[in-house]
Amino acid sequence: MAKINFGGVEEDVVTREEFPLSKAQEVLKDEVVAVLGYGVQGPAQALNMRDNGINVIVGQRENSHSWDKAVKDGWVPGKTLFSLEEAAKRGTVLQFLVSDAGQKMTWPTIKACLKPGDALYFSHGFGIVYADQTGIVAPADVDVIMVAPKGSGTSVRANFLDGSGINSSYAVYQDATGRATERTLALGIAVGSGYLFPTTFQNEVFSDLTGERGVLMGALAGIMEAQYNTLRSHGHSPSEAFNETVEELTQSLIRLVSQNGMDWMYANCSTTAQRGALDWRHEFRKATAPVFEKLYQSVVDGEETRIVIEANSAPDYKAKLNTELSEMRESEMWAAGAVVRSLRPENWGKEDGK
Ligand SMILES: NC(=O)c1ccc[n+]([C@@H]2O[C@H](COP(=O)([O-])OP(=O)(O)OC[C@H]3O[C@@H](n4cnc5c(N)ncnc54)[C@H](O)[C@@H]3O)[C@@H](O)[C@H]2O)c1
Ligand SMILES: CC(C)(O)[C@@H](O)C(=O)O
Ligand SMILES: [Mg+2]
Ligand SMILES: [Mg+2]
Fold it and tell me: PROSITE patterns of this UniProt entry (predicted)?
């Protein structure tokens, strides 16, 4: 395993050079990989593996939107597309990629399909770490492994198609066969990971739940709304408030951060902006640090997973989520954003920016 120094801390990383696709194909040559669930991660991982020459089948609820999507993607009912239970029976690696709440609901069915020597694969530590809430306790004679892509499934597929990749973390929770690590690494490469970072199920789920509720999604939306509302309350127009909060970030500044780091983005802004931002960043860090601590504790205490299981086990959970997303989309701020996006030269004449 390569040793890489991250800001003074040496960590292990598995690269594609040391674990090339040919090795992954060799490790997986006798496996049937059953991707259970065809929501966001399911399609990305299943299609990438299929394109990488792995023997993949898909399991999904029949008569569902996701089943129809799987058919459109070329999975053939009765040949490579089955009910969850049938796919689980046929697979030797079961990639448990139904939603986290769905994993709790379907676990009794999936558990009954596991054979000695199978691998039970997750893309999140949720089901195993919060077993007291999910009831997911694997039999001792199966491998329990994880590859968790650090990005949306949409990007896992898009990056694979453009020849790049998404970094993933990986972990082995239970090695029943003695092959758990090589299976995990092979699957990690086969699903299109660029680099694989070792972790534990617990560290993955604690950091993942914090990150998405925090800077990646929750804090991002919240802090943007706060700035937009402040500008609007002082008489700035919707377009001015949106441009100064979101559009400039996504079209210019965050791209510079991605290319070369935060100081690089700062260095490419005026010295006026640098002076003020260098000062105000401390104020924002101090104001939000207690919120991040509260969030982390809520993750560790199991409150976040409890809320997810309760809400997303309701029969109409998807409709409820969609209602809240529509409210966000139709708010003045994001309605203004849709218009701002349509004015980008590359979007002239298009119906929407998607
Ligand atoms: N969405 C992502 O990009 C992403 C990224 C990293 C990790 N993950 C993890 O990957 C796993 C899958 O996440 P996802 O976002 O693709 O899931 P999702 O919410 O899109 O759901 C996936 C599928 O689960 C099915 N499903 C839900 N409840 C079910 C039930 N009770 N019975 C049968 N099927 C049911 C749905 O039909 C859907 O096709 C989760 O563990 C998640 O935390 C997701
Ligand atoms: C894509 C994310 C946010 O990284 C993932 O963790 C998820 O739950 O969808
Ligand atoms: Mg997550
Ligand atoms: Mg994540």
Answer: KARI_C, KARI_N
Ligand 2 pocket test: pick from 100, 147, 210, 216 the residue with the most ligand atoms within 8 Å of its Cβ. Answer: 216
Q: Residue 354 domain-assigned?
A: no
Q: What would the pLDDT profile of 328-352 be if each residue is shown by its tens digit?
A: 999 999 999 999 999 998 888 776 5
pLDDT (mean) for 9-35: 95
**CA–centroid distance, residue 231 to ligand 2 (Å):** 30
pLDDT of residue 353: 52
For residue 252, give the CATH number of its domain.
1.10.1040.10
Cβ burial 158-192 (10 Å sphere, 16+ → b, else e): ebbeeeebbbbbbbbbbebeeebbbbbbbbbbbbb
Any ligand 1 atom below 6 A from CB of 102: yes
Please, what is the angle between helix 41-51 and helix 153-161, to 10°?
Answer: 20
This model's pTM is above 0.80: yes
- In angstroms, the first-to-last Cα distance of the chain is 39
Atom of ligand 2 nearest to the CA of 41: 9
143 and 11 in a common domain: yes
Task: Give me the domain span that covers residue 221.
Answer: 214-347
Residue 247 lies in a domain: yes
207 assigned to some structural domain:
no
Q: Which residues line ligand 2 (CB under 6 A)?
A: 151-152, 208, 212, 216
Predicted pLDDT of residue 310: 98
Nearest ligand atom owner, CA of 216: 2
